[in-house]
Design goal:
The strands form four sheets. A five-stranded antiparallel beta sheet has the order 5-9-1-10-11. Strands 2-6 form a two-stranded antiparallel sheet. A two-stranded antiparallel ribbon has the order 3-4. The chain is globular. 24% of the residues lie in helices and 25% in strands. The chain has six helices and eleven strands.
């Protein structure tokens, strides 16, 4: 008879803010979006408003990818054509892994456990593009050309991008806390966001697209048994991610521990 499992939610940390496009942003949409403007590579749009947005899966996936690169874990699980990620298959690996406890593993793995991190879709703020001269509603069309290295023949293509200056809001990142070790893992989430900010979001980053900044940050912590009484962040934390230091991350974990695990903090 299999041993019974139990999971206790000790608390949650909710990080909100805005994502500002510092260069043109391309997060690809489905083939059906080709009807809008006839561009070769369209952006993803909300099916109701037809406004571009940032899928939570895109931001979360980029955070995971950057964190896997920083920690150097093995890419041992295929999730698609020529795409691999790291996944722990055994429980003893999971406990020590810097990636899987935060970003999760598939339910068919022996080490499966509720995912700590979730990231919601982030809608565009249409007013942030007022006055912008765009080729299509809310977007620009960037022409690029692939050059044959032997014949110098060019193959042009059109790439749709949300222009620089666009603001996406509200961003909401939720981190679930199940054990005291998760408080330290929260610092790794902040670092992953910094890695994305210094890299790019979406596609064509090596060609200049996808630079973003996280701004207007606010942090709220909710403890399990007093869940309705949320604690807003202390004023010690910067509102711009670019201003966060290791000291700020340590202060964050100290504060969250005091809220969620007051006995151990004392």
């Amino acid at each position: 008879m299999a041993a019974e499992k139990s999971v206790t939610l000790a608390g949650r940390v909710i990080i909100t803010g805005t994502v500002v496009a510092k260069s043109g942003l391309h997060i690809g949409g489905a083939a059906g979006a080709l009807a809008i403007g006839g561009v070769d590579m369209p952006v993803i749009r909300d099916p109701v408003t037809q406004q571009p947005y940032i899928p939570g899966s895109s931001l979360r996936g980029k955070m995971r990818s950057q964190w896997e690169k920083l920690t150097g874990v093995k890419q041992n699980t295929s999730i698609g054509k020529q795409v691999k990620i790291h996944t722990c298959s055994e429980a003893n690996e999971y406990e020590k892994c810097p990636v899987c406890p935060i970003y999760g593993v598939t339910g068919d793995k022996p080490a499966s456990f509720p995912t700590r991190l979730l990231v919601r879709d982030i809608p565009l703020v249409p007013s942030s593009l007022e006055g912008a001269q765009t080729d299509l509603p809310y977007t620009e069309v960037k022409w690029e050309a692939a050059i044959d290295r032997v014949t110098s023949a060019a193959t042009p293509r059109q790439i749709e991008r949300v222009p620089a200056g666009a603001v996406f809001q509200p961003m909401e990142i939720v981190f679930n806390i199940y054990e005291e070790q998760d408080v330290e893992r929260l610092k790794d989430v902040i670092t992953a966001m910094q890695l994305v900010e210094d890299d790019y979001l979406g596609g064509h980053g090596s060609r200049g697209s996808g630079k973003v900044a996280f701004e207007e940050l606010k942090v709220v912590c909710r403890a399990g048994k007093e869940y309705s009484e949320h604690c807003p962040k202390p004023d010690m934390f910067p509102t711009k991610l670019s201003e966060w230091t290791d000291d700020h991350k340590n202060q964050l974990s100290k504060w969250v521990r005091e809220v969620v695990f007051p006995k151990s903090a004392s």
